[in-house]
Hints:
7% helix, SH3 type barrels, mainly beta, elongated
Amino acid sequence: MKNFGDSWTSLKTPVEIQITKNLLTKKLIISHFEIKPNYILIRVESVAVPEFWDDWRSAEIQIDSSFLPTEPLEKDEFYIYQLENLEVLDEKLQATGFTVTEITETPAHFILICSNLEKKILIPFLNVWVGEVNLPKKFLVVKDWESWIEI
């Protein structure tokens, strides 16, 4: 699998994961893993044949957050799950009525899916569009907010 960070270096096996694809979910236990330069090689208990993964290619892997490192991340570093449910504010720190409901990944960057009761908007998670992210106060700032409403 692809590696998008260094959280794996602190994981101890065995570790339970959940994989999800096309609304199907499976719980598995990683018995061993090796971090390679561009990927992570994993061995999963009760999966003896490589063909099992043919149906699960491109599945999302979820690990309970309690297995993640407890030391603080660097400034402006976040786990994706920490951005969910943040209130979206404009540059004047005024409420927009939107909340981050989901985060999706593209080859270029992450996309924040923000919703209110009437609509959804997509905002690239890039410094040019997203300003302050304040996890303790549960908000993030979207720059040039009016442009996103018009799209």
